[in-house]
């Protein structure tokens, strides 16, 4: 009796399959975002870094799109579109133009060398998994496993972005680090079911990033300092620090 | 008439709308004189509306909330914004004369001033955590733009540093906000309710404590960056010293308070839940750290605005410590200290602004003997520094005294560190003050053309508060202190 009912409304196998499909695909995208964050950590050319960042933005847009489909939340498509158009195309192109104009495509001055940075990155990911999975253990049952693990991945992306910001001296790669950090935030926000204002927040962030990029242009850090190496900025601090 | 009675019942939306409309208007006004006048008028109007809040009923709408806590912040904020706009009108006229700013710069500056005021008011009055976050982000962006206004190398460096650290701070705060939503979602359901402040407070006891703790750590680090708490204070001295002086006054007197307000909101959420980690020790540690660090850093300053920027870090540390200590007395002391610090520090920045303009420099070594060359200005600065250093009879003395006594009652060992930090900072300020105010005056003896009224009003309030606090104000602060837990 039970069985016939279930067949009439779609087989239990189907339901299980689609539930696990939602889970697996969302996992795939979130995991890919973390992996791409690692890819960014060891790029030593700005153009390559920009390309990897664009790739992360594309994956983010897919991930957000998938959440929009799975949660039946059409407004999230807007966020996905912003990620795709603005972060995967417009910003990388603008930054690439800037890098070409300033002639700094070979420079990614790192403060810490690649090896220790990667090790620190692994430690940060482990940390965020431990913290998040432990802290959320009581929140939900199996239904929320996706949200919980999404959160752990999102924190990893956030921390890796932060790591990139502190291990790079170059202003352009710091901006990229910040944008990748923000990708993690969008991942967390879209993973939280029914969270309000996600679209507004992603728009607010886009404005912020656009201003940063315009800021680099307008302030013409190159003209003033001959380099976008922020270490050079420090010399103006002189004795007043 | 209908409009007027509506205003009396609920002035909150108008309070946010006035600065927003003024910003658009000021962006369109080409004359800087008219612009400066309109800026003062708009700030005055906002302050008058904020006073209306005192008599208005407490509301908890879907967008805005008016409660006893945020009224204190809104009234203080709009008042200091008003006096600063007044000071700014005289200040920028001088900057225009010396050619450091152009009329176009000023048009931008006035519009941004109003955007900043509107964003801060929205952040304080918003009932939605997401809106509050967006408003604080907007406030940060406008101040970044204003810090970079002079376009000198140092100003650009300061703006960039502020931008990067501020962005990281607000990013962490957003992560914390998302976590709070995830904590609330199983209890209050999906959708907007999970971000409405009054709903969250009602259900605080049902939330999962573990995730709420993690959320608070992110929120404290994120908004703490904007408060200027060590170790995340690095942006603050640069931003204060390189921007126009009215902006230094607004940053120290207002924006730091708004970020602190956000921290307090979340602290009271944790306080409402018995199972969570006590938020106090974290705040106390950051507060004491800031106090000690800033105390030692004060000795080595060579730039006058940087000196008082470090003094702001010191005082935000004391305030964070007081709120971290918790309990009715310490919270009361924290609120009072915050109010006194805002008034005193902006008065000091007004005096410093005048002093830098007549001397044509910000270097401490070149600003000497101010009481001889400009008696009124010099003695006002002395009064301000004496007040901020915590000497009686200023209001700061009273609030610091309350912080110290409540600390001795609750945590004697921490109180010792607190007193040590206070003494270190006191010594530094006295050493610097004697050089600035007394001795042979340095060159630059032109009289100050701008008005001393804003500075005088602030100092009068601070010293009056040290001698007499109206019982209504005490009752109010006491009530708010009890709510904060």
Distance between the termini of chain B: 41 Å
Helix content of chain A: over 70%
Helix content of chain B: over 70%
Largest interface: A-B, 51 and 48 residues
How much is the radius of gyration of chain A in Å? Answer: 21 Å
> Could you say which overall geometry of chain A the principal axes of the C-alpha atoms support?
globular
Q: Which stretches of chain A of 5+ consecutive residues score pLDDT under 50?
A: 1-8, 222-228, 235-241
Shape of chain B: globular
* SSE topology string of chain A: HHHHHHHHHH
Enumerate the spans of chain B where pLDDT stays under 50 for 5 or more consecutive residues.
none
Protein structure class of chain B: mainly alpha
Concise synopsis of the structure shown:
The complex is a heterodimer of chains A (241) and B (485). Chain A is mostly helical and 241 residues long.
Structural write-up:
The complex is a heterodimer of chains A (241) and B (485). Chain A has ten helices and no strands. Chain A has 241 residues and is an all-alpha fold. Chain A is globular, with a radius of gyration of 21 Å. The relative contact order of chain A is 0.13. Mean pLDDT of chain A is 79; it is low at 1-8, 222-228 and 235-241. In chain B, 62% of the residues are buried. Chain B is 79% helix and 0% strand. In chain B, helix 2 packs antiparallel against helix 5 and helix 14 packs across helix 20 (471-484). Chain B is mainly alpha-helical and 485 residues long. Chain B starts with a helix and ends with a helix. The mean pLDDT of chain B is 89. At the A-B interface, helix 5, helix 6, helix 7, helix 8 and helix 9 of A face helix 6, helix 7 and helix 9 of B.
Record keyword descriptors for this entry.
heterodimer; A: 241 residues; mainly alpha; 10 helices; 78% helix; disordered N terminus; disordered C terminus; B: 485 residues; globular
